[in-house]
């Protein structure tokens, strides 16, 4: 796939990235190299290779879903300036 300078600038514009002409030329070379690597991967024969969701056959140990911290709500509300029915009262900021 041949990538042009104008396409890099257009992609940057669509992504709302401010890109100078010199930076675009630099990124053009980088993107071309990446696309060459993708082309190499596309040319590989993967016949008979099973697709993988993850390269490792590992599972994660899970911990029990238990409450480990106590509720400090009452303690926090005792030091609040104003509380009503378990809610913090604050001054109105929007009219």
UniProtKB/TrEMBL annotation:
<dbReference type="GO" id="GO:0070681">
    <property type="term" value="P:glutaminyl-tRNAGln biosynthesis via transamidation"/>
</dbReference>
<protein>
    <recommendedName>
        <fullName>Aspartyl/glutamyl-tRNA(Asn/Gln) amidotransferase subunit C</fullName>
        <ecNumber>6.3.5.-</ecNumber>
    </recommendedName>
</protein>
<dbReference type="InterPro" id="IPR003837">
    <property type="entry name" value="GatC"/>
</dbReference>
<keyword id="KW-0648">Protein biosynthesis</keyword>
<dbReference type="GO" id="GO:0006412">
    <property type="term" value="P:translation"/>
</dbReference>
<dbReference type="InterPro" id="IPR036113">
    <property type="entry name" value="Asp/Glu-ADT_sf_sub_c"/>
</dbReference>
<keyword id="KW-0067">ATP-binding</keyword>
<dbReference type="GO" id="GO:0016740">
    <property type="term" value="F:transferase activity"/>
</dbReference>
<comment type="similarity">
    <text>Belongs to the GatC family.</text>
</comment>
<dbReference type="GO" id="GO:0050567">
    <property type="term" value="F:glutaminyl-tRNA synthase (glutamine-hydrolyzing) activity"/>
</dbReference>
<dbReference type="GO" id="GO:0006450">
    <property type="term" value="P:regulation of translational fidelity"/>
</dbReference>
<dbReference type="GO" id="GO:0050566">
    <property type="term" value="F:asparaginyl-tRNA synthase (glutamine-hydrolyzing) activity"/>
</dbReference>
<dbReference type="Pfam" id="PF02686">
    <property type="entry name" value="GatC"/>
</dbReference>
<keyword id="KW-0547">Nucleotide-binding</keyword>
<keyword id="KW-0436">Ligase</keyword>
<comment type="subunit">
    <text>Heterotrimer of A, B and C subunits.</text>
</comment>
<comment type="function">
    <text>Allows the formation of correctly charged Asn-tRNA(Asn) or Gln-tRNA(Gln) through the transamidation of misacylated Asp-tRNA(Asn) or Glu-tRNA(Gln) in organisms which lack either or both of asparaginyl-tRNA or glutaminyl-tRNA synthetases. The reaction takes place in the presence of glutamine and ATP through an activated phospho-Asp-tRNA(Asn) or phospho-Glu-tRNA(Gln).</text>
</comment>
<dbReference type="GO" id="GO:0005524">
    <property type="term" value="F:ATP binding"/>
</dbReference>
């Amino acid at each position: 796939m041949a990538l042009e300078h104008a396409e890099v600038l257009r992609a940057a514009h669509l992504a709302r990235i401010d890109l100078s002409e010199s930076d675009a030329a630099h990124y053009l070379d980088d993107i071309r190299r990446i696309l060459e690597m993708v082309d190499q991967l596309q040319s590989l024969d993967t016949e008979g290779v099973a697709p993988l969701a993850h390269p490792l056959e590992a599972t994660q140990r899970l911990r029990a879903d238990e409450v480990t911290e106590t509720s400090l709500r009452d303690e926090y509300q005792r030091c609040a300036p104003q509380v009503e029915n378990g809610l913090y009262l604050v001054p109105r900021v929007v009219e």
